[in-house]
Design brief:
By secondary structure, the chain is an alpha/beta fold. The protein has one domain: TIM Barrel (Alpha-Beta Barrel). It is built from ten helices and eight strands. Helix 1 links the parallel strand 1 and strand 2. It is globular, with a radius of gyration of 17 Å. 43% of the residues are buried. Bound molecules: 2-phosphoglycolic acid. The site of 2-phosphoglycolic acid has 13 residues, from strand 8.
């Protein structure tokens, strides 16, 4: 993940169902990425496909994981360590996606995972976002507490390896019309930077912020122009090779 470029991250979630489909999607995405010099494209496939893609990424696509455990080695059935991920060519691990937080992951767990990932020498994509918005703006307080708790265990010296994905739950998995507007994204990005500055000083402000939640070719341009963000974390539209290629081209021209 090269900073300074627009960052476009594909979150395939638990898709597609077979290695053959995953390979086809990856190759189509790689083709689109190879034509976009001003964009850094990362694909986060399900764990079983990661080593398949470490041979196929050719320096054009960065490999990301959708999660990582908070330590290396030990009696942790079913978990995958940062060390293993690094060994197969992963360069960034996502932690704290809301679909995982909704089931069992606390801010504390997410924070431990984030620190373990950066300590291993990988970058970390830390997902944050409020469940709902209220007219009084109380959600800002919720977001502040979530950010503080989620970064409580992350050491300042690793901040240059951190990227934040702002993903409000109310905007995930919908139509682009129900996505957050550029002005909402911009206002929230400013707020997130302020909280990061309170925690980490000037360095906190340099952490790139991505937006995620129903981004498609229809709203990508406006969000990049007016949203004050470094790029996107893209779910369902990253499973449509054509739509995703279109988003990459929009980001390249932005
Ligand atoms: P979506 O998902 O693009 O399908 O809304 C984004 C995400 O959950 O990462």
């Amino acid at each position: 993940m090269k900073k300074g470029k627009k960052l476009i991250v594909a979150n395939w979630k638990m898709n597609p169902g077979t290695a053959a489909e995953a390979r086809a999607l990856f190759l189509a995405t790689r083709r689109a990425a190879s034509e976009a010099r001003r964009v850094s494209v990362t694909v986060c496939p399900p764990f079983p496909f990661l080593s398949l893609f470490s041979r196929l990424s050719n320096g054009v696509i960065s490999l990301g994981s959708q999660d990582a455990f908070w330590r290396n080695g030990g009696p942790h059935t079913g978990e995958v360590s940062p060390e293993m991920l690094k060994d197969i060519g992963v360069t960034i691990s996502m932690v704290g996606h809301s679909e995982r937080r909704a089931r069992w992951e606390t801010d504390d767990i997410v924070s431990r995972k984030a620190q373990a990932v950066v300590r291993e020498g990988l970058s970390v994509l830390v997902c944050i976002g409020e469940r709902a918005r209220d007219e009084n703006g109380d959600f800002f307080g919720v977001l502040r507490e979530q950010i503080k708790a989620t970064f409580s265990k992350v050491q300042r010296r690793f901040l240059s390896d951190v990227v934040i994905a702002y993903e409000p739950l109310w905007a995930i998995g919908k139509n682009w019309r129900d996505s957050a507007s550029p002005s909402v994204v911009r206002e929230t990005a400013i707020f997130i930077r302020k909280v990061m500055a309170d925690m980490f000083g000037d360095e906190g402000v340099t952490v790139p912020i991505l937006y995620g939640g129903s981004v498609g070719p229809e709203n990508a341009g406006a969000l990049l122009r007016d949203g004050d963000i470094a790029g996107f974390l893209i779910g369902h539209e990253s499973l449509d090779a054509e739509a995703f290629a279109w988003i990459i081209r929009i980001a390249n021209d932005a």
